[in-house]
Design a protein that fits this description.
Layout: H1 3-8, E1 10-16, H2 22-37, E2 44-46, E3 54-62, H3 69-73, E4 77-85, E5 87-88, E6 100-101, H4 109-115, E7 121-125, E8 134-135, E9 138-139, H5 140-145, E10 155-168, E11 171-178, H6 184-194, E12 199-209, E13 212-213, H7 220-226
Parallel strand pairs: 3-12
Antiparallel strand pairs: 1-3, 2-3, 4-11, 4-12, 5-6, 7-10, 8-9, 10-11, 12-13
Length: 231
């Protein structure tokens, strides 16, 4: 593609690697495009944040296509991941250490599969305290890291599909199709509560946003390789 292509607007599908923030991916692509075409600036943004510990599909918009970001953000998303039963963490994932453990002897495969039914449809969900949502001008994770209590209001979300794809001891692999605003970390925590065993998210990968599929996404390295090389 030419510099004019990027400036007029492109939708780029990127497979976000582990431990990168979505902001870092955007910054990296913006810098590489600027370097490749020797331009001072270009608009680049993403349509939906992924946590650093999650991998998978990031929809990146350039140039005039950045005006469509809100449209892409509102589309249905699909994730696959793993929930570990029997323990919880304050962040609901592996960002923080286990803070409590629970009995799991009562858990059966039938109970696990049947419990997913409680989460299908329109439900109320509390976002994690370790999240970037703003409250009184501060990010929630700032309150959490300072050890401060904060009142978090639930959000109405929709889960179209919640499927258990594999059970290996206390590791529960799943696929979920959900609306904008859904926190899969919160789903893992709530699922553990419903099983009376606790639970936290140990792996997460976003596979789809609307009609966009991670199968068609490029790694950051492959994207860079496709840019023109400077003489």
């Amino acid at each position: 593609m030419t510099v004019e292509d990027y400036q007029s607007g492109q939708v780029l599908l990127v497979d976000k690697p582990l431990n990168w923030t979505s902001f870092q991916v955007v910054n990296k692509l913006r810098w590489e495009i600027r370097q490749a075409f020797n331009i001072k600036k270009i608009k680049v943004g993403h349509a939906g944040t992924l946590d650093p510990l999650a991998t998978g599909l990031l929809v990146i918009c350039t140039g005039k296509m950045t005006k469509q970001i809100d449209t892409f953000q509102g589309q249905i998303k699909e994730y696959i991941g793993t929930i570990v039963l029997g323990s919880t963490t304050p962040s609901f994932d592996l960002e923080t250490d286990i803070n409590e453990t629970f009995e799991t002897a009562h858990i059966t495969e039938d109970l696990i599969h049947n419990t997913t039914k409680q989460f299908i449809g329109e439900i109320e969900q509390f976002p994690p305290i370790f999240s970037a949502i703003k409250k009184d001008g501060k990010r929630l994770y700032e309150f959490a890291r300072a050890g401060e209590d904060v009142d978090i209001k639930p959000r109405t979300i929709t889960i179209q599909d919640f499927e258990i794809t594999n059970i290996s001891d206390l590791n529960i692999e799943f696929r979920v199709v959900c609306s904008k605003g859904t926190y899969i970390r919160s789903l893992a925590n709530d699922f553990g509560k419903a099983l009376l065993s606790g639970g936290h998210l140990s792996a997460l990968r976003r596979t789809k946003i609307g009609d966009f599929d991670v199968k068609n996404a490029l790694s950051i390295d492959d994207f860079i390789k496709n840019l023109p090389k400077k003489d």
